[in-house]
Specification:
There is one protein chain. The chain is mostly beta strands and about 725 residues long. It is built from four helices and 55 strands. The strands form ten sheets. Strands 24-25-26-27-28-29-30-31 form an eight-stranded antiparallel β-barrel. Strands 32, 33, 34, 35, 36, 37, 38 and 39 form an eight-stranded mixed sheet that branches.
Length: about 725
């Protein structure tokens, strides 16, 4: 585990001091331009002032009676509404905020917001900010603290400019001591998902994301911006809340590379600065920005553990943004340039379990490999070996040394010492049946934080015990780091017993610990027997046919499975499952029971391959193989209000039985009303193989209008199990205020 002391390194201390001074200057009042009680700015003064505008030559326009016209460049600027007044700089005088509309001669009509200070009754425009193209302005206001709010209607990123703007947007601004506008609210998720990020593996070193996704079919490179974790805070001292995001990159092999990226907020225009690799097949758990420092938390593996092992080691990295680059404050060297013989150079960006190597105009991502001493990173093409400040790059296929005699031009990486765990949990693992454990039985016990509803349970500590003929109750002792225990966490212990890598017993109930009143010693974990099955037998390769013509290929191993879907392959470790088999790396989950299975995107809680059935010789169509079932009912509401023709009804069937994870969607239906009124009938098709009698299932509904949520169900509508219905279900939705 890597831990860092807050503000201990000189670089971080200097960075924090500079950021603190910058933040203090942002909060200080602007220099007064006029005494309190200066005459109010007149409409004539505003209509005949000189405004800063970046779109015109020289950066300024002089309005005459509210207009400016450059016939040569076909630019027209017009002062329009809405406008507002208020004290922007704390001098007691009423300043102004106005709207400027700029026509460029083409189809664009740009709306700007301009801040105008009151200099003794004279209008002094000091800054402007672009709001959008062909938007519909609604209101502008100035709060008592000088914050400006502009409300307008815009389009979604995926809509053409010809579409009518219907999406409400609110932008907030402040003036800094130099009289320049800056954003006073964080970037929206949609802004971060539609930006161009630096990515060395991409063509030209940059990747343009749409809807949070990037894909290069030619190279097989795919990347996506995770919806969580994300963070906002000032990274460069300008007062605007910048952002940090996590990016997941797949290069077409089994690796899943994680990057942390810094994004500056320039008047709500995202400006990604740098992305730093921090691990391969790790599990991000948290991201924060405090005093200009980006703090990243994730689960990693021990140095001697293979990549197939589920990451369980809590790890923390801290970064500051310096010169557009994310620099680690833990004393680690993220980027090393090696000067080699024959004048060659190798540039290496080191992550936790991988490295990006740039050499002779080519870039490769190498995964960390076991080595007796020094470092070793390799893929199918290159191998990088080194010790101390020396390194050598080799062609894997031919064995030729590509770059030898390389010497690092920056200090070698260092790692802060790990803190030894001091907390202890003790108890026993047992079962009620009178059955002897086989001599080769292995007992695994875990302590995990199960409080986070939108992420897999975070493993804090684990212990593996070889029975060697011992019988239940089997004593355990879990050692953990108390600093990893969060005050708002919910912690539990679980256990499983395997023999010859086959799961034979597993705990199915939550055994709470560490909470007030919960035990830390004498904990009894009762495990239940798992019936013998053939699912997941090592060496099996199975092709599954799924709904919508999708296919999943699974190669089952002893403790993991290689799952291939839509051209991507992941190695997923096997984890406990009370029924069937389950493989889960915290990002993707494959479950199978008998001949059926399904694939889940855990980050977005979506079943991406549903109703999957094992392909058999001589099989005909996918639909003929599947036993489909349906749930039917209606969506309605009690108010006497007509649905508009563009209303869209969405209905979902979800597994709601687990309290420690987000509900997993099993089936969904989207209905365009096209003028139809409630009650709206629905029919949800699902795979009965995904339904377990001991679990709880429910249907829910929501109604949106132009992408905005208008109605939603607020009570649970149970279905399928425990006597709940499958037909005639009435989902009542309530209006969203």
């Amino acid at each position: 585990m890597t831990q860092t002391s807050h503000l201990r390194s000189p670089a971080r201390m200097l960075s924090a001091v500079l950021l603190t001074l910058a933040a203090a200057s942002v909060r200080s009042p602007l220099p007064a331009l006029a005494q309190a009680g200066a005459p109010r700015l007149t409409p004539d003064a505003l209509a005949n002032a000189t405004y800063p505008l970046d779109i015109v030559s020289g950066g300024k326009v002089q309005l005459t009676n509210g207009t400016f016209e450059d016939t040569r460049n076909r630019i027209r600027v017009e002062l329009t509404t809405p406008q507002a007044s208020g004290d922007l700089n704390g001098d007691g005088s009423l300043d102004a905020v106005v709207t400027l509309v700029v026509s460029t001669g083409a189809s664009g009509v740009l709306s700007y917001l301009a801040a105008v200070l009151n200099d003794g009754g004279t209008a002094k425009p000091v800054s402007s900010a672009l709001l959008g193209d062909r938007i519909r302005m609604r209101t502008v206001s100035v709060a008592r603290n000088g914050e400006i709010t502009a409300n307008y209607l815009d389009r979604r990123f995926d809509q053409p400019m010809a579409a009518r703007p219907t999406i409400p947007v609110a932008r907030r601004f402040r003036l800094n001591p130099q009289g320049a506008l800056f954003a006073s609210a964080p970037l929206a998720g949609a802004d971060l998902n539609h930006a161009t990020y630096p990515l060395q593996a991409a063509q030209g070193g940059r990747a343009t994301f749409t809807g949070g996704q990037y894909r290069d079919a030619a190279s097989g490179l795919a990347a996506r911006i995770l919806p969580a974790p994300r963070a906002s805070g000032d990274l460069d001292g300008d007062g605007a809340p910048d952002s940090a995001i996590v990016m997941l990159v797949s290069t077409g092999g089994t690796g899943s590379l994680f990057y942390v990226c810094a994004v500056l907020n320039r008047l709500y225009q995202p400006q990604p600065q740098d992305c730093v690799l921090f691990g391969d097949r790790v599990a991000p758990t948290g991201l924060a920005i405090n005093d200009g420092v980006v703090t990243l938390r994730f689960l990693d593996r021990k140095p001697d553990e293979p990549m197939s092992v589920r990451p369980t080691v809590p790890t923390t990295f801290d970064y500051v943004l310096d010169g557009g680059k994310l620099i680690s404050t833990a004393g680690e060297t993220n980027i090393v340039t090696y000067a080699c013989s024959d004048g060659k150079a190798v540039r290496v960006t080191f992550g936790k379990n991988a490295a990006v190597v740039e050499f002779d105009g080519a870039t490769e991502v190498l995964v960390q490999r076991p080595v007796a001493s020094g470092i070793r990173y390799a893929n199918e093409k290159w191998e990088l070996r080194g010790k101390g400040d020396e390194a050598m790059l080799t062609d894997v296929q031919s064995g030729q040394v590509l770059a030898g005699g390389c010497l690092a031009q920056t200090p070698s990486a260092t790692t802060a010492p790990a803190t030894a765990p001091t907390g202890v949990l003790t108890g026993t693992v047992t079962y009620r049946e009178r059955i002897a454990l086989p001599p080769n039985a292995v007992i695994q016990v875990q302590l995990a934080d199960i409080a986070i509803a939108d992420a897999p349970a975070r493993v804090v500590a684990s212990q593996t015990i070889e029975a060697k003929g011992a019988q239940v109750p089997i004593p355990f002792e879990l050692k953990y780091d108390p600093s990893a225990i969060q005050p708002n966490g919910r912690y539990a212990v679980s256990a499983r017993i395997t023999a010859d890598d086959r799961l034979i017993w597993i705990s199915t109930k939550i055994n709470s610990v560490l909470a007030p009143g919960a035990p830390t010693s004498g904990v009894e974990i009762v495990v239940e027997q798992v019936a013998g099955r053939d699912e997941g037998a090592p060496g099996r390769t199975v092709e599954y046919d799924c709904a919508a013509g999708k296919t999943v290929r699974v190669v089952y191993g002893a403790d993991s499975a290689e799952v291939t879907f839509e051209g991507q392959t992941w190695s997923l470790p096997r984890v406990p499952s009370a029924s069937g088999v389950r493989y889960d790396d915290g990002i993707w989950e494959w479950r199978s029971k008998g001949p059926n299975g399904f694939l889940v995107d855990l980050q977005n809680h979506v079943v991406v391959a549903n109703d999957c059935r094992e392909r058999t010789t001589g099989s005909t169509s996918t639909q003929e193989q599947k036993g489909q079932a349906v749930i039917t009912g209606t969506v309605t509401y009690l108010q006497r209000v007509a649905l508009p023709p563009n209303a869209v009804v969405e209905v979902q069937l979800a597994d709601v039985s687990k309290q420690d994870v987000a509900a997993m969607v099993i089936a969904s239906q989207t209905i365009e009303t096209k003028g139809a009124q409630v009650p709206i009938p629905f029919e949800l098709s699902y795979d009965p193989a995904q339904i377990e009698e001991g679990m709880s299932y429910a249907v829910s509904a929501r109604i949106t209008i132009d992408g905005k949520l208008a109605w939603i169900s607020t009570t649970r509508n149970s279905v399928l199990t425990r006597g709940a219905p499958t037909t005639g279900i009435e989902i009542i939705v309530s209006p969203v205020r």
